[in-house]
């Protein structure tokens, strides 16, 4: 067998062998803010409450339905969503302060999850409450955000991007909600 044919055969076997390597589970990954979307006087945004059944489970690769691969985090989802929602509201032009303000926004996280099949599909579902300076609720409603994107299979980077973009989209949907905008502009 010629040296060239032997080299090609070895390279092919290496490539085939690497395809059968065990997939390392993405468990206890940190929450990393990595948005790919952007947005264009609110008092505090109280830390959201995470009411999901399994707070550490943030995603699942379902490319092989009989062998789903979990993605978990050791991070605080409620603090992550709250902090980046505050940041996004500020970028959108709202004055978000940590102390007393004209309005207070609070809420509950019902869903924060990415399902990976042929694409990465994120969903963030929130129930939000807007209260005036006296603590009277002036608006409440369900807000959702999510995105779909392509990416390499089972990569933390792609989960970071879709989770971050879900926060931006949910914040954008909150700001574009006519009832929220009306309650916010007429405290």
Radius of gyration equals 21 Å
Count, helices: 4
Distance between the termini: 84 Å
Low-pLDDT stretches: none
Helix content: 25-40%
Structural class: alpha/beta
Main β-sheet description = 7 strands, mixed
User: SSE string, helix = H, strand = E?
Assistant: HEEEEHEEEHH
User: Strand fraction band?
Assistant: 25-35%
Mean pLDDT: 87
Q: Give the CA-based shape.
A: elongated
DSSP strand count: 7
Describe the structure.
The protein is an alpha/beta fold and about 190 residues long. About 30% of the residues lie in helices and about 30% in strands. The chain has four helices and seven strands; from the N terminus they run H-E-E-E-E-H-E-E-E-H-H. Strands 1, 2, 3, 4, 5, 6 and 7 form a seven-stranded mixed sheet that branches. The longest helix has 20 residues, at about 155-175. It is elongated and about 80 Å long. The relative contact order is 0.19.
Main features:
187 residues, alpha/beta, seven-stranded mixed beta sheet, 4 helices
List the topology elements.
Layout: H1 3-19, E1 26-29, E2 49-50, E3 57-61, E4 69-73, H2 77-91, E5 103-116, E6 120-132, E7 137-149, H3 156-175, H4 178-185
Write a compact overview of the structure shown.
The chain has 187 residues and is α/β, with parallel strands linked by helices.
């Amino acid at each position: 067998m010629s040296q060239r044919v032997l080299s090609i055969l070895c390279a092919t076997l290496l490539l085939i062998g690497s395809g059968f390597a065990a997939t390392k589970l993405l468990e206890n990954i940190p929450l990393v803010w990595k948005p790919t979307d952007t947005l264009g006087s609110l008092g505090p945004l109280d830390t959201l409450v995470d009411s999901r059944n399994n707070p550490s489970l943030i995603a699942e690769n379902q490319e092989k339905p009989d062998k789903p691969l979990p993605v978990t985090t050791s991070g605080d989802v409620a603090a992550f969503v709250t902090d980046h929602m505050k940041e996004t509201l500020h970028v959108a032009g709202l004055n978000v302060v940590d102390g007393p303000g004209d309005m207070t926004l609070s809420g509950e996280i019902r869903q924060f999850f990415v399902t990976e099949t042929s694409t990465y599909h994120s969903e963030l579902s929130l129930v939000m409450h807007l209260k005036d300076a006296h603590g009277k609720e002036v608006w409440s409603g369900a807000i959702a955000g999510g995105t779909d994107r392509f990416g390499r299979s089972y990569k933390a980077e792609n989960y970071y991007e879709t989770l971050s973009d879900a926060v931006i989209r949910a914040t954008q949907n909150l700001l574009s909600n006519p009832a929220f905008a009306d309650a916010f502009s007429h405290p």
